[in-house]
Design goal:
Layout: H1 2-8, H2 29-35, H3 58-61, H4 73-86
Protein name: Methyltransferase
Organism: Aegilops tauschii subsp. strangulata (Goatgrass)
Length: 104
Amino acid sequence: VDQLARMASGGAPSRSFVAAARPRQGVSPVEQILKNVEWPDEFPFKPDDFSRFDESSDTVFYSAPRFVTHIDDPAIRALTEYYSQVLPPSNTPGVAILDMCSSW
């Protein structure tokens, strides 16, 4: 991450910030749930469960841009608020953030 930040900032010193979905202290609700999971004895899915509706080449699918919103407005607001708390402002000198999951 540090190397990517240096490359993005033209070699200027930078700080890395990693956003995480972990609570600041204690055990997360997800970890609590996963402590006592009862897994099935047999794998519950058939190979057909993993087939796609459209089995054509992914190249065809990705050849045209698709600018869609995958989450609703309240979720976007919640993420924006979370990011504003855990990430530095966009104009912070020496900071570069690579968003590998962004769309448009």
